[in-house]
Design a protein that fits this description.
The protein is α/β, with parallel strands linked by helices and about 500 residues long. It has a domain of about 100 residues: 2-Layer Sandwich (GMP Synthetase, Chain A, domain 3), CATH 3.30.300. The strands form 6 sheets. The protein has an 8-stranded mixed sheet, with helices on both faces. A 7-stranded mixed sheet has the order 8-7-6-4-5-10-11, with helices on both faces. Strands 18, 19, 20, 21 and 22 form a 5-stranded antiparallel sheet that branches. A hairpin with a 5-residue loop joins strand 10 and strand 11. Helix 1 packs across helix 2, helix 4 packs across helix 5 and helix 7 crosses helix 8.
Length: about 500
């Protein structure tokens, strides 16, 4: 598969059509303007900073039209974008950048402290801020103004050419870079055009952050390839979302927490969502009662399943299935093959048999960035091992049952307990710690730390939570702490997580 510069094609075919609406700044960007501004950024990177194909350029910023311009500007010259999670601490970001080794960092002016700390600590010479220029830091608008404005047209890209990196924490807590290729982007667009019924005349409300696969790929990049319009929300705002769903948007994708907040809005009962013809959700299980609340309003949320490693969509229910089988993720989408295998024997299983789900297809990332060990561990004869326990029924519709790993999902974000446990261990007086995910009506799941103290130590719940918030992104910090004399262990001497979940987790 080869991918052309579709921004150039759209700019020539319908130059005045609106590509992006930045809800924070109020800017409306046509396809001609988007192509020009992306070209100016590409020219600056190439000619002023000498950025070469394959070099990494890191972005630390909220979702915005500027972010999209920079993403596509890097694509035009073959630079690989590192989409940084602004919810991470500076120390966590240092780990990501240390792995990716960028030649440049661009940050939003709202992240000036973090951006300055990162370029100084990592000795990144090429630095830019979206606000006004300052000594030794270029300003985004002034940099664009200095360029010629001539179109920089991207050469046709091959399927496995990397466009951007999304980092996801590994089971040990060390982040892993997941390459997103041009071929994955095209496959994802085709998938969602077929299964989510995306069209060129659509207006999508984009509410998820652009460091997340859901923000970029569901469905902003899809709609740009189609020539549609995206409304970019800097950060989720429930009041503004309600307004736009009633007045302007035709497509909506969100994680369950977003749908929950909308359902709790005072205007929800009387809201008219008839403009929106495509609703979808993913990132965590959607509670049945929540899906039914929308069904009562005539809104069918098509629940799906995906991973950063899968581009992301691998399952998405059709409306009929979503109404008949609340809780299923449906059948594999067009360009994905799925199978279920026994977790021990690795033999393929049939209907109604629970096992690990394996996936393959052109939407799957070719491997982890600069991490052959993780790649080898996660792939089995060309199949991606998801670690998710699933089954499919007699109709072939899949159900996600549990995770074979200890990861839980809080507000659409993956949390790996080992990372949190390593931080808790740093607290003076802590002897042992384990973290499990427990149900939360707002975030889907949150962390609960089970902690054993050293003899005579005085540590309370507030101290544990505060320390974690200091060292980690807020969503990773546990919301509850349970103190015990000692952690339960299995015969092999390992912490018995199933027993801890049974004792301190959600009631059966």
């Amino acid at each position: 598969m080869q991918v052309p510069d579709y921004l150039v094609k759209h700019a020539r075919q319908f130059p005045a059509k609106t590509a992006l609406v930045d809800l924070h700044s109020g800017r409306r960007v046509s396809y001609a303007q988007l192509n020009e501004r992306a070209s100016r950024f590409a020219e600056f990177l190439r000619d002023r900073w000498q950025v070469k194909p394959g070099d990494r350029v890191a972005l630390l910023a909220h979702s915005s039209s500027d972010y999209v311009e920079m993403l596509y500007g890097c694509g035009k010259i073959g630079a690989v974008v590192i989409c940084l999670n602004w919810r991470l601490s500076v120390d966590e970001l240092k780990g990501v950048l240390g792995d990716a080794q960028p030649v440049a960092l661009v940050w939003g002016e709202e992240f000036d402290v973090a951006g300055t700390a990162l370029v100084d600590a990592l000795k990144i010479g090429n630095r830019m801020v979206t606000g006004a220029a300052r000594p030794q830091v270029a300003g985004y608008e002034s940099a664009l103004a200095e360029m010629s404005g001539a179109t920089v047209e991207m050469p046709w890209r091959e399927h496995n050419d990397v466009w951007y990196l999304l980092y996801t924490a590994g089971s040990t807590g060390k982040p892993k870079g997941v390459p997103q290729t041009w071929g994955m982007n095209v496959t994802n667009t085709l998938t969602n055009t077929i299964h989510a019924s995306l069209r060129r005349d659509d207006v999508m409300l984009s509410v998820l952050p652009y460091f997340h696969t859901g923000g970029l790929n569901l469905y902003m990049n899809c709609l740009l390839m189609l020539g549609a319009t995206t409304l970019i929300m800097r950060q989720f705002d429930v009041d503004k979302t309600m307004e736009l769903l009633e007045k302007e948007a035709t497509v909506m994708f969100g994680v369950p927490a977003i749908y929950l907040f909308l359902s709790q809005h005072p205007r929800f009962a009387g809201a008219d969502f008839s403009r929106v013809r495509s609703w979808a959700a993913g990132g965590a299980p959607v509670p049945r009662v929540l899906l039914e609340a929308y069904l009562a309003k005539g809104v069918t949320i098509c629940f799906g399943f995906g991973m950063t490693e899968t581009g992301p969509t691998v399952f998405l229910t059709d409306e009929d299935t979503a109404r008949r089988k609340v809780g299923t993720v449906g059948k594999p989408v067009m360009f994905v093959e799925a199978k279920v295998v026994d977790t021990q024997t690795r033999q393929r299983l049939g209907a109604n048999q629970r096992g690990e789900m394996l996936l393959r297809g052109p939407a799957i990332t070719p491997g982890y960035w600069n991490n052959p060990q993780a790649t080898a561990k996660s792939y089995e004869d060309g199949w991606l091992c998801t670690g998710d326990i699933v089954y499919f029924d007699d109709d072939g519709d899949f159900y996600v049952v549990d995770r074979s790993k200890d990861m839980y999902i809080s507000g659409g974000e993956n949390v790996y307990p080992a990372e949190v446990e390593n931080v808790i261990f740093q607290i003076e007086g802590v002897a042992e710690a384990a973290v499990i995910g427990i149900h939360d009506p707002r975030w889907g799941e949150v962390g609960k730390a089970i902690v054993a103290l050293k003899p005579g130590a005085q540590v309370n719940e507030e101290q544990v939570i505060a320390y974690c918030k200091q060292k980690l992104a807020g969503f990773k910090a546990p919301k509850q702490v349970q103190f015990v004399p000692a952690l339960a262990r299995n015969a092999a001497g390992k912490v018995d997580k199933p027993r801890l979940r049974a004792e301190f987790g959600d009631p059966a």
